[in-house]
Amino acid sequence: MVRDGSRGERDLVKLLWEKDFAAMRAPASGGATKKPLPDIIAGNGEIYLAIEVKMTSGERIYIDSGKIKGLLEFSEMFGAEPYIGVKFRYRDWIFLSPSDLEMTPSENYRLDLDIALERGRDIHEITGRERQTRLR
Amino acid sequence: MVRDGSRGERDLVKLLWEKDFAAMRAPASGGATKKPLPDIIAGNGEIYLAIEVKMTSGERIYIDSGKIKGLLEFSEMFGAEPYIGVKFRYRDWIFLSPSDLEMTPSENYRLDLDIALERGRDIHEITGRERQTRLR
User: Fold this and answer.
1) A75-106 burial, b if ≥16 CB within 10 A, otherwise e?
2) Confidence (pLDDT) at B122
3) Residue of chain B minimizing CA distance to A38
4) If you average pLDDT over residues B1-30, what whole number do you get?
């Protein structure tokens, strides 16, 4: 159910530029090192974001625990706020902190639409100053 | 005389990780937007770097003025220090601020090896706190 995130990443990069963030996608091939890279890095001189992008036509997303570990490591080192940016079909982007996710019995992560709506933030919140506001 | 910078970019990304910077190359295809992207972004939670990479087997490098304009725009917006990272063959990386470059009669930029050595900084300086120290 999870589609290729490439178009989604491009759309999100454009949205971030519209919010006056300079944003860049990771290279397709993982780049120079074995180091984990987020899908998108963005900054506006004050706030720095590292975003792992997920898209789905369903109402649930699974995320490999290695991806989350990598996102946290990169963000900590780079100096960025780690987010999972989720695009459920027909909905706006929702952004979650790694700590918002739920663990599966196999120790990966799961995110259901209702949890995403409850815990997530929208693009205005993650790019603005009122970052603690919740989506609803 | 200027070689494809791809291998150089990868080498520099590795060096930055060794200096405890999380570093990422720009995507090969320019990515999602027409926005100018630096070749490398890196950060360590304190210092953020946007780097345009140049390699040469000669002793002089020319840089298109549009590249420098783009580097400055991205860096200003993202919140990063703009550098031109230059690899002259058989020498270590030298990093220059856009203001260190000299303008050509055609209003592009030129950098000669002797000027680079005089005005440039090494990787320790741009990744450390003593960033005002000069290369020699």
Assistant:
1) bebbbbebbbbbbbeeeebbbbebebbeeeee
2) 97
3) B24
4) 84
Between CA B11 and CA A72 the distance in angstroms is: 24
Tell me the pTM: 0.90
Q: What is the mean pLDDT of residues A22-27?
A: 94
Find the catalytic residue in A29, A57, A75, A97: A29
**A37 within 8 A of A74, measured Cβ to Cβ:** yes
| Residue bearing the bigger pLDDT, B133 or A103 | A103
Which pLDDT tens digit goes with each residue over A83-113? 999 999 999 999 999 999 999 999 899 999 9
On the 0-12 / 13-18 / 19+ scale of CB atoms within 10 A, B89 is exposed
Strands A48-56, A81-88: pairing is parallel
Chain B residues inside the 8 Å CB shell of A82: none
Check whether B116 has a pLDDT greater than 70.
yes
pLDDT at residue B23 tops 90: yes
User: What's the CA gap between A81 and A76, in Å, rounded?
Assistant: 8
Question: What is the least distance, in Å, from the CA of B105 to any CA of chain A?
Answer: 31
Measured on CA atoms in the order B46, B50, B55, B58, is the torsion positive or negative? negative
**3-class DSSP assignment, residue B104:** coil
Asked if B49 and B43 count as a contact pair (C-beta separation under 8 A), the reply is: yes
